[in-house]
Amino acid sequence: MKFEIACSLTKSCKPGDILTLAVEKNWKGVTLYDDEDLKNTIVDCRHCHQPDASKPPMLRMQELKDPWTHWLTNNRSGGTVLIDDFRRVHGEEDYASIPGKIDFRSDGRAIGDFVAGQGFEPQPNEFDSPTIENEVKESAGGQPDVNVPIGKSATWQGLFDKAFAGQFIPPPYHDIKVTDPTKLAYATAAYQKFLNGKMAAADLPDIRRVFLDEALEGMTIVPKKGANGREVLIQTCAQCHNANLDPSISRAKFDVTKLESMTPKEKQTAIARLRLPASDRKHMPPAMFRSIPDDQLQLAIAELTK
């Protein structure tokens, strides 16, 4: 679903327009899409839900097992620390039309049972929540409440390595929290000022900018440090550009797993897309998903010029 608000029609939205309750009201238009409509766009569903075009689509739930890491579950240690962070920001403010005073009862079991019952267990490169959480806790005793220093998990690293090689979509981050404590405290204070009438919506900063810099690599937002040009391209692009996906769409012309089969013209087109500003809708990789630092971008471009 895509919806329009007044500022989106004029491309003038500020954080106060899209990160507060204002975004839930006074819509100017709504458009519904299905996966067929989106299959050749940057918001395609099928590269995750149908990673092999020769097989039927699948239900995805990478964190299929209890304790469902990253779910806002009020009876699991990870869920409670995330709920606490949320409450510090939003208090009892309504959210997504859900009354703010209602207790969090999000539980992965019901949807996990549904996914498994439909035949989608195990998941490809499944995130082993209990094992990974235990390994992270053993590596950094303050977890999950304190996520600096970051944790480590050999089990998670195995999943990441397979995704890095372009075999699977990336796994979720190994730690329960993905936030930088300082950035989160700043965003929390700013939003609380807004809620208490001490800051105008127009002055609200972008409170989404709270990721821990050290976690960006593990979240596959930026490429792995030390990766060569080909590895940067595979890690960054293979999720949407590989031979297993729908070969009938234009995106299939760029198969990052078979660079040798691409023509010089196709490679130059890819280079041009990489060089576009992040604000351009044709910029690659899509800015909402990935970012390539300048030094690694040059390595990727050099690989494409071979």
UniProtKB/TrEMBL annotation:
Superkingdom as given in the UniProt entry: Bacteria
Keyword Metal-binding tagged: yes
InterPro entries registered for this protein in UniProt: Cyt_c-like_dom
Cytochrome c domain location: 224-306
Keyword set, alphabetical order: Heme, Iron, Metal-binding
Keyword Iron attributed: yes
Entry GO MF terms: electron transfer activity; heme binding; metal ion binding
Protein name: Cytochrome c domain-containing protein
Organism: Labilithrix luteola
